[in-house]
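This part of the workshop introduces the protein records we will be handling. Getting from the letters to the tokens is the skill we practise here. An example says more than a description, so a record of this kind follows:
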Amino acid sequence: MEEAGGNRTGCEKLQTALRDCHRRFGPGATRDVACRHLNRALAECLVSFLCPEESEAVRTLCSSGGTRLKRSQCQQAQLSLSVCIASHQD
């Protein structure tokens, strides 16, 4: 597995931990369960690195229920984050 973003993302320790988890557990359901928290944490770290403003907006606006306005703002923030992520894909 290639280092995500070289050594510049701040996510390297999570990537190493996930790689180690994959080495400890063979493919399948056990690995999925055992490594799930690391996979999620690495994904969130990388998304926060690539799209910091959009990621923070989703965290802030989508953290709880709320009014129709807040739900609408949450949906808009999610869309903006999706667009940002897509702009970084090949």
Remarks:
- The two ends are 17 Å apart (CA to CA).
- Residues 1-5 have pLDDT under 50 and may be disordered.
- The chain is about 70% helix and 0% strand.
- Helices lie at 12-24, 29-50, 52-61, 68-87.
